[in-house]
Design goal:
single chain; mainly beta
Length: 208
């Protein structure tokens, strides 16, 4: 036996406009004032994960020679973890992410600082560890003073005690935006004594 299903016409929803009137926008720019380039370079990203040799090389640059602990993350995939009494390093080869931390605790508030000085210290450290081969490989994105608690977490209750320097990788002076743009393709944190506390690298796939 078939049952007939009655149809009900739903009323049309009424969505009120929160903005009344028109915005006073005046456009003074004309089409002939915009100079468009005739051609632009195109770079192709070739996805390739870190191989075992690259993982070993990166670890040795940060002072790790022992065998890593191999674990798996639901988002990052396989992760190789290196640790010592002073430092910690994790490498996610599929995502090309390098995360280095020291056990140095930020104890004193960050006072007046020179942006250029901290930028130079961060770049010198990245060159020393061969994260970059040239200072021009990175473009400064943001320098800011933040508050970090004993557990390494950002705390709003403390006075700023860490300087965070973020960079974006460039190709021929063109900044490349990654998935962690807010963090920066490379992030280095320093304390007031200008010691490196951590380095985070969201590396890019190889380019052609």
């Amino acid at each position: 036996r078939e049952e007939k299903v009655s149809q009900t016409n739903l009323p049309e929803p009424k969505i009120s406009n929160l903005y009344k009137g028109r915005f006073p926008i005046t456009l003074n720019l004309k089409g002939n004032q915009i100079a468009l380039p005739k051609k632009l370079p195109v770079y192709k990203l070739r996805s390739s994960e870190y191989d075992s040799s690259t993982i070993k090389t990166i670890a040795e640059r940060f002072g790790f020679v022992s065998e890593p602990l191999k674990t798996e993350d639901s988002l990052l995939g396989i992760i190789y973890v290196f640790s010592s009494s002073n430092n910690f390093l994790s490498i996610a080869p599929i995502q090309r992410i390098v995360d280095f931390k020291t056990n140095i605790l930020p104890t004193s508030p960050a006072g007046d600082f020179s942006e250029e000085e901290f930028k130079s210290i961060a770049l010198d450290f990245l060159l020393e560890k061969k994260i970059i081969s040239d200072k021009n490989d990175l473009k400064l994105f943001k320098v800011r003073a933040i508050s970090v608690g004993p557990g390494g977490h950002i705390s709003e209750e403390l006075e700023p005690n860490v300087i965070s320097i973020s960079f974006i990788k460039t190709v021929k002076d063109i900044p490349i935006i990654s998935g962690s743009h807010e963090m920066g393709t490379v992030n280095v944190k320093l304390n007031k004594e200008k010691e490196v506390l951590s380095v985070y690298v969201d590396d890019l796939p190889e380019m052609e």
